[in-house]
């Protein structure tokens, strides 16, 4: 799938705005900003117009201030009606006066050539709440983030392999490689796979499992996760089929019950959340989850942030890490570099790895064939010293 550039983004935003599809205009603007593409004055003015028609004054003001911060002229964002009203009561000004007024406006807004600009952080939730009215609880987003951070800390995985006498990290990798193929076969949601792996790891950290039952744990976890995330989850009979009838219906249901009971029914976890960028992030996340040491050393939100960072480096996004991403992930570039380097090293060896289900999954053009991208060797070459 072709990567969108500034022209195509702007054309989409302007088209939505001109067709009175204001929510779509704002949503597209959010997607453009998160992708790392810098907006121009036409995109900004279309979004300000959309906010005006939707009577979203606060959001419009924020977008307007954001435009001023990135150095765009105030005059681009004055409504036509206001311009006409202003021109009807004021005398025409000369070009020199216009330049002087614009300079004063920039100075008043803190935009000068000598003073460094403040980091630009866009309130993604605020804008997306306009585009999607169903998110009526947007005012609780910060609390939700804090809750998931707390949840992540309380359920931090420990190194459980030392307490498992019959299984090891390689067996875990074999299981996950097989689960990824099963997940892909049934075209389940990406979140289903991540939750499946999380449930497997959490269950193994509190329960001793024989190697003969490891795949039973895996398919039962997949069944639980798909019921949670997917509209049409696979059936128990499907799990029997993909396991070559190694386990009966009764065994699968019994293991499903055992997992839920052992985890006290806490199934949800804080999970890693332009199609090419999205698929690249999923690709790196799944490569990381395949590796036991990466999964144990990094909590889910840090792994997700590292996957985003590695994806942006691979796709040559500039800058590789923005102030907006730092604000919402709570992680700086230095905190993510080591994990991201591990993910990129996995990418470099993915085609030759024995466990190559992730690589094969993302060779598919429907997933933007992201595994075929050259690895971000520039990131591997970085030696950071504080």
Automatic annotation (TrEMBL):
Residues 257-376 form the Cyclin C-terminal domain. This is Cyclin A/B/D/E. Pfam families: Cyclin_N (PF00134). One of its GO terms (biological process) is cell division. Signal peptide: none annotated. Residues 177-261, 262-345 form the Cyclin-like domain. PROSITE patterns: CYCLINS. Belongs to the cyclin family. SMART domains: CYCLIN, Cyclin_C. SUPFAM superfamilies: Cyclin-like. Keywords: Cell cycle, Cell division, Cyclin, Repeat.
């Amino acid at each position: 799938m072709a990567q969108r550039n500034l022209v195509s983004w702007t054309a989409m935003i302007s088209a939505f705005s001109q067709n009175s599809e204001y929510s779509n205009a704002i949503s597209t603007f959010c997607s453009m900003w998160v992708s790392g593409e810098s907006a121009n004055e036409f995109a900004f003015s279309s979004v300000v117009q959309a906010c005006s028609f939707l009577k979203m004054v606060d959001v419009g003001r924020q977008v307007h201030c954001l435009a001023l911060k990135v150095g765009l002229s105030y005059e681009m964002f004055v409504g036509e009606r206001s311009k006409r009203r202003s021109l009807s009561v004021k005398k025409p000004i000369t070009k020199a006066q216009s330049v002087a007024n614009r300079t004063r406006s920039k100075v008043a807004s803190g935009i000068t050539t000598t003073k460094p600009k403040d980091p630009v952080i866009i309130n993604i939730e605020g804008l997306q709440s306009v585009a999607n009215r169903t998110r009526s609880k947007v005012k609780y987003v910060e609390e939700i983030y804090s809750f998931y951070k707390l949840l992540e800390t309380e359920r931090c995985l420990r190194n459980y392999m030392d307490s498992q006498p019959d299984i090891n990290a390689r067996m875990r990798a074999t299981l996950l490689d097989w689960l990824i193929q099963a997940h892909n076969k049934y075209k389940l949601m990406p979140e289903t796979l991540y939750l499946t792996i999380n449930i497997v790891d959490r269950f193994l950290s509190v329960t001793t499992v024989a190697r003969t039952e490891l795949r039973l744990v895996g398919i039962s976890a997949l069944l639980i996760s798909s019921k949670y995330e997917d509209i049409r989850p696979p059936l128990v009979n499907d799990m029997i089929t993909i396991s070559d009838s190694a386990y009966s219906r009764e065994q699968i249901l019994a293991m499903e019950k055992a997992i839920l009971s052992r985890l006290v029914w806490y199934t949800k976890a804080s999970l890693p959340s332009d199609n090419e960028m999205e698929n690249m992030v999923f690709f790196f996340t799944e490569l990381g989850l395949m590796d036991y040491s990466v999964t144990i050393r990094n909590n889910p939100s840090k792994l997700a942030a590292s996957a985003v960072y590695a994806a942006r480096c691979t796709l040559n996004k500039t800058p590789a890490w923005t102030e907006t991403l730092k604000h919402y992930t709570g992680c700086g570039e230095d905190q993510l570099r080591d994990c991201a380097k591990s993910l990129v090293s996995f990418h470099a060896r993915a085609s030759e790895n024995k466990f190559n289900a992730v690589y094969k999954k993302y060779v598919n053009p429907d997933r933007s064939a992201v595994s075929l991208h050259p690895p971000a060797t520039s990131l591997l070459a970085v030696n950071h010293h504080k």
